[in-house]
TrEMBL record:
<keyword id="KW-0732">Signal</keyword>
<dbReference type="GO" id="GO:0003677">
    <property type="term" value="F:DNA binding"/>
</dbReference>
<protein>
    <submittedName>
        <fullName>Y_Y_Y domain-containing protein</fullName>
    </submittedName>
</protein>
<dbReference type="InterPro" id="IPR036388">
    <property type="entry name" value="WH-like_DNA-bd_sf"/>
</dbReference>
<dbReference type="InterPro" id="IPR015943">
    <property type="entry name" value="WD40/YVTN_repeat-like_dom_sf"/>
</dbReference>
<keyword id="KW-0812">Transmembrane</keyword>
<feature type="signal peptide">
    <location>
        <begin position="1"/>
        <end position="21"/>
    </location>
</feature>
<keyword id="KW-1133">Transmembrane helix</keyword>
<dbReference type="InterPro" id="IPR016032">
    <property type="entry name" value="Sig_transdc_resp-reg_C-effctor"/>
</dbReference>
<feature type="coiled-coil region">
    <location>
        <begin position="770"/>
        <end position="837"/>
    </location>
</feature>
<keyword id="KW-0472">Membrane</keyword>
<dbReference type="InterPro" id="IPR013783">
    <property type="entry name" value="Ig-like_fold"/>
</dbReference>
<feature type="domain" description="HTH luxR-type">
    <location>
        <begin position="886"/>
        <end position="943"/>
    </location>
</feature>
<keyword id="KW-0175">Coiled coil</keyword>
<feature type="transmembrane region" description="Helical">
    <location>
        <begin position="743"/>
        <end position="761"/>
    </location>
</feature>
<dbReference type="GO" id="GO:0006355">
    <property type="term" value="P:regulation of DNA-templated transcription"/>
</dbReference>
<dbReference type="InterPro" id="IPR000792">
    <property type="entry name" value="Tscrpt_reg_LuxR_C"/>
</dbReference>
Length: 946
């Protein structure tokens, strides 16, 4: 069982052990949507300062001062080659080659050289390479080589030994190879065979570059060779077979590096001792693995043209990222450089790295048993300690030894009071004291009683008080007893102590206890027992946002992370100096939200904790930066009116018409092409705060109101400090009716009106009496009208009451008639039944007399007259209006309409008319006929409208 566990542990450690490249470079990607050009970049050239020229699928792509511009030929010809020679840009394309020059307006214009040939038909030739040699310019295609003499302006064809695959300058000479032939050297416009190169007939030479000591490096389809001018030898270099297997396509050399571009696996970067420094590919930030072109800029950094995209590789950047190379070590929370080995604490465990002589880190391994969340790694008295999720450990010989049993070792710090040999630790639960054992190792001694809560932040003030940042509840100040084994007093810091709201952030700046809420830093004032705003750093910040962390960076130096910027301050008493500023977006970094941290490893190296690895900042490289301090230049503004008219604003202090109130600004920087420039801008007169850092070089302000404005823009230099601000003042005039002259006229008119008012005021007074009398008369009229309205209202109310009374009488009368008729109908039915039963016993004389009395009672005309009177009073001459509209209606029809107007059913109407329900339906049918109603019209709804 023990052997199995030992084997499992070894296997686990081996699984986490891997090598990483010894160096890390900054790779900037310029994507197709940014350059607005084609995917493929076949060749690259530099003017030695601020401009980069790229032979692109769509044309000549120019990068100048952080801005791309594309120059095309008719038909969007694919450019295969570009060169910058004697202040001219030469390009080669399909069946054409020539150069570009600026015209009087500063626009690039193309001049073809191919048309100067005696026979200008290039017969499907494409120009793949342009070089300068001995004062002449040569254009290479697979079929031939063309020469151009700038002095005589002659353009001619060179005799060639056959079709040639490449043309390369190296070591002051120019080399080529005929297909399935040896290498040749260009001399006096003739190609001379290179002795001893016949063995290359079965290989395709891809590129030739110079090496120190007059050597050449030759890359072919099958190998890499060194050539000393007499003999060829195989180049012995690390990973050579892998390089060849991935199809060499191009090579280039810097002062201290050899770079080989391949078709299948990106770049292989070697030092001059042929040691592999790095393999850059899509796994570590290249956009594409197929390398088409390479160019070294004046600062020995590298431009890379690929089958898809354009990249810039900075070799001398002070910031080296270790992310992609680390596979997946998780988010980094802690680090320490100990005995030339780097220890990294992540959310997955503790890893350690070796450090080479150049300060680079490689070969990571997991410390056995450290899997899980790591909160800190610190050195105390020559030994390394770490706080993990399940306790606190000392690290010796890459092994963990547990010294603290309390879970969640957030922090561990030396207690600052004299004569106290003690470390204190904040954890998930207790505040724990550590003391040294006989072996000189700090180990857990006892928890301090009187406070038990999870606390992430831990600081001490000059009075020996312990400050804790609770993980949730806020800030606490703890006053321990003399023995430091008990907390005598716990004070929660809230609104009573000057804080606008609760916070758990806790920092120490110099000797100050600090916290942060919103945009404001607060400093503890021990005399007044209050937190007060601290503004000492405000003038240096360029970003809004809360201070996420303040941590020591060395003697009298502090890292302050605020918003989207990281600042290094040197603070000595009240003297504050900003030494460096880093924007995480410059390097595409993402810090761990809520755990932002930079850890000093030594005097020069600082580790940036990232959510996907870490980065190393070398301050010595910052101090030795060879990049010039850039400047920012604002180009002429473009003003647009609401009608779309455009005005170029070339000179500052220009006055614009109120119509030209949409203004667009463009700007550029003298920063080295390749290093992404970041800018801040604001429009004074409209904005009080700088906008956030951006790579944009253009902005537009819409519908600006009249007034004075100053557009300002600034950049951040290679030293991390903000450049001089470039400004462009201008103003927008108000419309004519708001101008100064009109304002004076308005004042004059106002004074005139006042004088006229005083002149006429006396005339108005005599009218006031008349107005009073007139007003009294109007009041009397109003009162009379009001009284009349009141009388009318009372009459209306009385009339309404009468109508309501009549309606009630009508309803009562109708119900009485219905009950009476129902009763008489019942009696009549009973009489008829008795007649049937009794026969002659009930004489006809008496039967008919009784029946007639019943009939007369049912069809009582007097009752109908009363009903008609009540109905007209309640419904405003209903019968009259109905009869006028439909004169063909009979009295029976009118009676039926009255009952329908009362919304009675056929069953209720039947006794009132002394007919059956069926008879009612038949009358309704005849009524519809007389009213000429369609089947879609509802009879009752129609009657209700009268």
């Amino acid at each position: 069982m023990r052997r199995f566990l030992a084997f499992l542990l070894v296997a686990l450690v081996a699984d986490f052990s891997t090598g990483i490249a010894q160096v890390s470079y900054q790779v900037s990607n310029y994507r197709v949507n940014e350059s607005r050009a084609g995917n493929q970049n076949w060749d690259i050239a530099s003017d030695g300062s601020q401009q980069i020229f790229v032979a692109n699928n769509y044309g000549l792509l120019v990068l100048e001062n952080s801005n791309f511009s594309l120059h095309e030929l008719p038909g969007r010809t694919i450019f295969r080659s570009v060169a910058y020679i004697n202040e001219k840009i030469f390009t080669g394309s399909f069946e054409d080659f020539g150069f570009w020059e600026e015209d009087e307006s500063g626009e690039l214009r193309y001049h073809s050289l191919a048309t100067r040939l005696e026979n200008p038909d290039l017969n499907n030739d494409e120009i793949w390479k342009i070089i300068e040699h001995q004062g002449k310019v040569y254009f290479h295609s697979f079929g031939t080589v063309y020469g151009y003499d700038p002095e005589t302006e002659d353009v001619y064809r060179l005799p060639t030994p056959g079709s040639m695959m490449f043309l390369n300058p190296a070591g002051g000479k120019v080399y080529t190879q005929a297909i399935q032939g040896p290498m040749y050297r260009l001399q006096d416009d003739a190609f001379i065979p290179v002795e001893g190169s016949n063995f290359l007939q079965d290989e395709e030479v891809k590129s030739v570059i110079s090496l120190p000591d007059s050597l050449l490096l030759i890359g072919t389809s099958k190998g890499l060779y060194r050539y000393d001018g007499d003999t060829f030898t195989s180049w012995q270099a690390e990973n050579k077979e892998e390089v060849v297997r991935n199809n060499i396509n191009t090579m280039i050399r810097t002062e201290d590096k050899i770079i080989i571009g391949t078709i299948l696996n990106g770049l292989y970067i070697y030092d001059l001792n042929f040691q592999l420094l790095k393999n850059l590919n899509t796994q570590n930030r290249l956009q594409n693995n197929t390398i088409l072109s390479l160019e070294v800029d004046p600062f020995q950094n590298l431009w890379v043209g690929m089958d898809k995209g354009l990249d810039y590789i900075a070799f001398d950047t002070p910031v080296h990222s270790y992310r992609e190379e680390l596979e997946d070590i998780g988010s980094v929370y802690a680090a320490a450089l100990f005995n030339s080995e780097l220890y990294i604490g992540t959310n997955q465990g503790i890893y350690w790295f070796k450090q080479d002589e150049n300060g680079n880190f490689y070969d990571k391994e997991l410390v056995p048993g450290s899997q899980g969340q790591v909160w800190f790694i610190k050195e105390f008295d020559g030994k390394l300690y770490s706080g993990l999720n399940d306790g606190t450990y000392v690290i010796e010989n890459k092994q963990l030894q547990k010294i603290g049993m309390v879970h969640g070792g957030y922090n561990l710090k030396a207690y600052p009071k004299e004569n106290q040999d003690l470390l204190l630790q904040s954890t998930y639960s207790d505040l724990v004291a550590y003391q040294k054992n006989e072996s000189g190792i700090w180990e857990q001694a006892y928890p301090l009683s009187g406070f038990q809560s999870p606390a992430r932040f831990l600081e001490f003030d000059h009075m020996g008080n312990i400050w804790l940042g609770h993980t949730v509840k806020g800030l606490f100040r703890l006053q321990p007893n003399i023995q430091l084994n008990k907390i005598d007093q716990v004070t929660e810091m809230g609104s009573n102590y000057g804080l606008p709201q609760s916070t758990n952030k806790l920092f120490k700046l110099d000797t100050r206890i600090m916290t942060s809420i919103g945009d404001t830093l607060y400093q503890w004032n021990a005399i007044d027992e209050q937190f007060v705003p601290y503004t000492g750093l405000d003038e240096y910040f360029t970003e809004k946002g809360s201070v996420a962390n303040i941590s020591p960076a060395g003697q009298e130096q502090y890292w302050v992370i605020k918003g989207e910027e990281i600042n290094l301050f040197e603070i000595y008493f009240n003297s504050i100096q900003l030494r460096y500023r880093l924007l995480p977006q410059m390097y595409d970094f993402k810090l761990i939200e809520g755990y932002e941290k930079i850890i000093p490893l030594n005097q020069n190296l600082h580790l940036i904790c990232l959510d996907d690895g870490f980065a190393i900042l070398n301050m010595d490289m910052v101090e030795r930066s060879k990049y010039p301090v850039p400047s920012v230049d604002i180009q002429p503004a473009v003003a647009t009116s609401s009608q779309g008219e455009i005005t170029m604003v070339k000179a500052p202090d220009t006055e614009l018409s109120y119509r030209d109130n949409t203004v667009e600004f463009n700007w550029s920087t003298s920063q080295v092409a390749g290093n992404r420039a970041f800018f801040q801008y604001k429009l004074e007169g409209l904005e009080t705060e700088w906008n956030s850092w951006t790579t944009d070089t253009q902005t537009r302000y819409l519908r600006l109101p009249p007034g004075g404005y100053t557009f300002s823009v600034r950049s951040i230099g290679p030293n991390g400090l903000v450049t001089e601000t470039a400004s462009f003042p201008f103003s927008i005039n108000p419309p004519w009716y708001s101008s100064t002259q009109m304002f004076i006229l308005y004042v004059v008119l106002f004074i005139s009106l006042v004088l006229m008012g005083r002149f006429y005021i006396s005339r108005k007074r005599w009218k006031e009496l008349g107005k009073d009398l007139e007003e009294k008369h109007r009041k009397m009229v109003r009162d009379r009208e009001k009284a009349e309205k009141k009388i009318i209202k009372l009459n209306n109310e009385k009339l309404q009451e009468k109508i309501e009374h009549r309606s009630a009488q009508l309803a009562s009368n109708t119900m009485a008639m219905m009950r009476k008729n129902n009763l008489l109908n019942t009696i009549q039915q009973e009489l008829e039944k008795q007649k049937e039963d009794l026969g002659d016993q009930l004489p006809d004389k008496y039967y008919k007399k009784l029946n007639k009395l019943i009939e007369d009672g049912i069809e009582d005309e007097h009752e109908w007259e009363i009903f008609e009177q009540l109905y007209n009073e309640a419904h405003g001459d209903f019968f009259k209006r109905l009869k006028e509209t439909y004169p063909q209606l009979t009295p029976s029809d009118l009676r039926l309409c009255a009952y329908l107007r009362m919304n009675l059913s056929s069953k209720e109407i039947a006794p009132l008319l002394n007919i059956s329900v069926r008879g009612v339906e038949e009358r309704r049918y005849r009524l519809r006929k007389r009213l000429d109603l369609s089947t879609d019209t509802n009879l009752t709804e129609l009657i209700m409208t009268f």
